Amino acid sequence: MELMPINQITEEIKTLMMEARTTAALEINKQLLKTYWNIGRIIVEHEQEGNLRAQYGKRLLAELSKELTRELGKGFSRSNLQNMRNFYLAYSNLPDVSGKLTWSHYCEFLGVSDQAARDFYEKECVNSGWSVRELKRQINTSLFERLLLSDGKANKETVLALSREGVLINEPQDIMKDPYVFEFLGAREQKPVLEKDLEAKLIRHIEDFLLELGRGFMFVGSQQRVTLGNRHYYVDMVFYNKILKAYVLIDLKIGQLEPEHVGQMNMYLNYYSAEVNDEGDQSPIGIVLCTDKHEVMAEFAFGGLANNIFASRYTYYIPDKEQLIHEVKALLESEGAENE
In 3D, which of 286, 277, 283, 272 has the Cα closest to residue 228? Predict the structure, then answer.
């Protein structure tokens, strides 16, 4: 009787063990979240029975931290107990602990004071599979506010939809942000950067760039050639979005958006539609990324075009979060005043 190859047996056992470890880790994570929520509940209930003053709460957490650390070991610092308390207060009912979100994820959510924004980040973490590092970046770069302001206006329906479902990608405009944030490049905004250097930096940081672009993006290549007649043109960066089933062409521009940038992108999209698209691919999408754009000029430059072309700004610095929040609130308030 011929023996089964050792490497095949080894792979089967490895797969079985990896599945068992993953399942065990998910169960441990679920139980940990339930336990921390209940610890928070116990702390809050004892506070209410005792004294609601802030000084009492601080003393209680400090004493608890000492005793629990002595009895149970690490994991019960005063700050962690404070997070457990806040976890219970933020979630009046124990959240659906599917195992996809860890305690570290929830600790990051607790730093987001706006309920709609917190709900959005929670939903997107599940939908996009963000690590804690990726979640921190999206919060720090004000993704929620940037998405709300991407089309130049905000409304309560959009806020509610984002908080309930995260980003729904049904149409090309659903993948757009304004501005895009390239803080991961470590570039100095006041220092001029050539387009080819910006492209090279983005390629070197392709994982960070894909995170900023959003869900469903795959990198196809840079300087993709488009040949018309005997002339060669080159698209700076080409991606494919699995959700929209469409090529996404990105041209990088140093400076303000110009009408000729739009015309060139329109030519690229016509070429991709006719020469590159396979059966099942949707119409390609073009994004011109520039440091600034004049809204009125952009309106006329894009007017009447059949292709999906968008222009958006990019910045090397994390936007001022308070300013973005102020802009969102101002737009929502002005909308409310118009409806009265």
Answer: 272
Q: Which two tokens stand for residue 154?
A: 């905000």
**Type of residue at 322:** E
* Whole-structure pTM value: 0.80
**Amino acid identity for residue 206 in this structure:** I
- Span 311-332, pLDDT tens digits: 999 998 888 888 888 888 887 7
Count the neighbouring beta carbons within 10 Å of the beta carbon of residue 140. 13
In the prediction, which pLDDT does 3 show?
62
Listed in sequence order, the residues at least 6 apart from 299 whose beta carbon sits closer than 8 Å to its beta carbon are: none
Name the phi and psi angles at 101, rounded to 5. -110, 135
Helix (H) or strand (E) holding 180: strand 180-181
Residues 6+ apart with CB under 8 A from 297: 257, 259
CA 119 vs CA 98, 130, 161: distances in Å: 16, 14, 10
Asked if 165 and 159 touch (Cβ cutoff 8 Å), the reply is no
What's the distance, CA 61 to chain centroid? 34
